[in-house]
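User: Let's play a game. I give you a shape written as tokens, and you guess the letters that built it. Ready? Here's round one.
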């Protein structure tokens, strides 16, 4: 009788371990990829070199060296990074977001697969869910250039919406000003005041990019081949 008992216990342990091994890869499988790299030159994903066909997941950071470029297909839309740029990808149920750390990052949205660029001044996206494409260039900690090449862009500053019309570029400068100091409830004394967060105050200056803008547009057109057919 001792042999059957040992056999049953051993079989039970093997079954538990097998279930555990089956479940391990399922967690990784549940992480849905955001997109696929379709063009890369002197580009990196974390510490690894990016190649065409590389899959990008939420939390991944794409970066380019001087002279590098990378293009990422997201459904029927796409992101691109020009030279000396970096962005971290994330997503929710409705939009894929690229948080821009440095350099020049742009997007082309087909109106169905929504993309956005997160910068210190707010969130840049196509207006009203329409097709469009444009880019941002980080100039400094509180200064960025936002360019709309096709379609109107919207810069969402915590609900304060600013439109960038097609064919226009704006230098956006951010000033941080304190919000109104909240008053303590009646009868409450002491110095336990709630510190209100600072609000972003944005200044917009229409600019002409000239040769720099023309070069960015030409390079983007070359990368995408067709602004409204990013699958090609």
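Assistant: Ready! My guess for every position:
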């Amino acid at each position: 009788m001792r042999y059957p008992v040992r056999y049953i216990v051993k079989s039970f342990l093997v079954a538990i371990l097998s279930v555990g091994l089956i479940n391990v890869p399922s967690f990784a499988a549940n992480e849905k990829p955001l997109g696929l790299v379709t063009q890369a030159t002197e580009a990196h994903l974390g510490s690894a070199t990016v190649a065409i066909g590389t899959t990008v997941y939420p939390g991944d950071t794409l970066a380019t060296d001087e002279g590098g470029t990378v293009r990422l297909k997201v459904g029927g839309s796409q992101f691109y990074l020009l030279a000396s740029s970096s962005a971290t990808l994330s997503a929710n149920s409705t939009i894929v977001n690229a948080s821009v750390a440095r350099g020049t990052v742009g997007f082309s949205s087909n109106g169905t697969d929504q993309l956005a660029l997160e910068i210190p001044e707010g969130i840049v996206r196509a207006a009203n869910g329409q097709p469009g494409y444009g880019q941002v260039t980080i100039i400094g900690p509180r200064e960025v250039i936002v360019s709309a090449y096709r379609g109107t862009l919207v810069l969402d500053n915590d609900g304060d919406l600013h439109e960038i019309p097609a064919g226009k570029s704006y230098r956006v400068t951010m000033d941080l000003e304190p919000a109104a100091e909240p008053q303590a409830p009646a009868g409450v004394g002491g110095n336990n005041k709630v510190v209100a967060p600072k609000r972003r105050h944005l200044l917009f200056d229409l600019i002409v990019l000239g040769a720099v803008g023309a070069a960015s547009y030409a390079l983007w057109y070359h990368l995408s081949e067709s602004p409204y057919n990013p699958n090609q």
